[in-house]
Design a protein that fits this description.
- The structure is a homodimer.
- By secondary structure, chain A is an all-alpha fold.
- Helices cover 70% and strands 1% of the residues of chain A.
- Chain A is built from 16 helices and 2 strands.
- Chain A has helices at residues 2-24, 31-41, 48-59, 68-86, 102-106, 108-128, 136-151, 156-166, 174-183, 194-198, 208-234, 239-266, 269-272, 277-280, 286-311, 322-333, and strands spanning 95-96, 99-100.
- Chain A has a two-stranded antiparallel ribbon.
- In chain A, a hairpin with a 2-residue loop joins strand 1 and strand 2.
- Chain A is globular, with a radius of gyration of 20 Å.
Chain lengths: 336, 336
């Protein structure tokens, strides 16, 4: 475990150095905008997503430098989502990673624009990966398209949408909270079924468990999955190996969210660097549905599945798989 | 002129048909989100940007179908920028193209997310252009990277940032309006120079004219330029021809904005489909700086330059240049 933590820290630092390089390279923009982008990018965090890109690419025989632009893009995408999620019209949070949120420092309009600028820069930076000869244009374009799919309406933003309307579901207040929200929009929406707000039209059931699964698989899971897939696709992984590594990604993505839900209940605001707002807002969480012990057991089970998926990989450098095993273990045991 | 208007309408309809296909293809998202995305995408508009992608690609020997994904992506990018621009923390507009703005129908949170989802989908759709054999992955990736550059902090979002703080500059109220805005953000920003908010650090002067030029070249101009460049880069244009077509794009981009400023003063709310809010907000515009006649003369001059740039093109199908000449003329004479 100690070995993995060193790996995580070393690569996180490498990513941070490269993030600074990228934000330092933005010409023709008012300084307030690049300052706002940099403020949130440099606010810390574990850099789990870019390190997953690197670790997966290494497993498939590439080097960190081969996928560094895409790895940085993953972290920028994550950062934009936090800036927009903290806005007053969303979670209205004042603190993030122990520091005032972006709009508290730069104002709401600039926080909106800094998020938009980051989300756009994500793809400019990602595309740069095509100029690295060991990767090339075709693999980069395929990885970029898959990544955009996971980050958008079919993935992360879809999960965020459901999350906005799921507030209160665990406390049986869904109807009244939703009614309150709808007052702020047009009357036409009031007659729509719960499914319209919370789940894709293709969903088989509309239980709280189904909603929780959809939110977690997408709001958090999609980007964890995208990180692993990006590393794999850039490195040219395909066939059965791609399926196995996706299985791994799905499992650790869900573990990540379960641990988040556990920490929201058990950790202090100081440990989290933000307020424990999910429980307070009556949000649907693993803990509210399955209890602390049930959630921990669920996490154990998923870790075992993730490890099994790694065991099944064929065309990989097995000695380079240690960080991926370590990441799964780390997700389970992390306490901050 | 009539010929060009037919060309514009025919291609606009083609784009709209393809936009519907794309929004119909978004799996795994709550219906409220895809409805919100579609609401603004299908709210009309002249579809100038995607038609410019098509017209430029045709000039360089490709067909509309060869660049349709990228053309649709350009329109989606434009649409997301309108949704976010209309939000209460930005321009706080109730009407857009004669219909209630996105947040008036779906609420602020959903409008934010619909904009984010569209901006992400832009790149998923754009990347799809790489699968069209006449274009390929390399040209698509190069065009995508250039496009992201124009749409982000170095282009459109940079211009929007400056625009947010330039309110009131034409009426000598810049200081007090800026002070009011800064009250909503942190105190640290209050001591910064005007340049920090309005212009890139590399700008040579901080006059109202310099600010106006920066805003217009970027807030509107960058995306018009990106449309032309996208068509050209996908079609493999390079060297002197690429420079000439960029010159053309710069000129018509600026004409587009000058006409917008003129219409904001001379057209009715009904004609515009939105309120004439720029003049009311004391925004910096061509008309406020140069007067109506001065603005019209400036537009004439730019049209002539744009036509000259087209005259200079070498490796193009000259008979296919008519729509690009027509577009320049159209920008000058449009009254709606």
């Amino acid at each position: 475990m100690k070995e993995f933590e060193t790996y995580l820290k070393t690569n996180a630092k490498l990513v941070e150095k490269n993030l600074s390089k990228w934000t330092g390279k933005i010409p023709n923009a008012p300084k307030i905008l690049t300052d706002a982008m940099e403020y949130s990018l440099q606010a810390g965090g574990k850099r789990v997503r870019p390190v997953l890109v690197i670790a997966t690419a290494e497993a498939f025989g590439k080097k960190a430098a081969d996928v560094m632009p895409a790895a940085c893009a993953l972290e920028m995408l994550h950062t934009y989502s936090l800036i927009h999620d903290d806005l007053p019209c969303m979670d209205n949070d004042d603190l993030r990673r122990g520091k005032p949120t972006n709009h508290k420092v730069f104002g709401e309009d600039l926080a909106l624009l800094a998020g938009d600028a980051l989300l756009t820069y994500v793809f400019e930076v990602f595309a740069q990966n095509g100029k690295i000869k060991t990767i090339g244009a075709a693999n980069t374009l395929a990885a970029l398209q898959n990544f955009a799919h996971r980050a958008g309406a079919s993935g992360m933003v879809g999960g965020q949408t459901s999350d906005v309307y799921a507030e209160g579901m665990s406390t049986q207040e869904a109807q009244s909270i939703r009614a309150e929200k709808l007052k702020k929009s047009s009357k036409k929406l009031a007659d729509k079924s719960l499914r319209y707000f919370l789940l894709p039209p293709t969903a088989k059931e509309t239980t709280p468990e189904a909603v929780l699964r959809y939110i977690h698989e997408n709001k958090t899971g999609a980007l964890i999955r995208a990180s692993v897939e990006t590393g794999a696709l850039l490195a040219g992984a395909k066939g059965a190996d791609l399926k196995h590594i996706q299985k791994y990604a799905d499992c650790i993505g869900l573990v990540f969210q379960i641990v988040d839900d556990i920490l929201d209940v058990t950790a202090t605001t100081k440990q989290l660097g933000k307020s424990n707002s999910d429980a307070q807002n009556g949000k649907l969480t693993f803990v509210s549905l399955f209890g602390l012990e049930g959630s921990r057991k669920h996490a154990q089970l998923l870790i075992a599945k993730a490890q099994k998926a790694l065991d099944s990989l064929k065309n990989v450098k097995r000695k380079n798989l240690a960080p991926l095993y370590g990441m799964a273990e780390f997700f389970k045991t992390r306490t901050y």
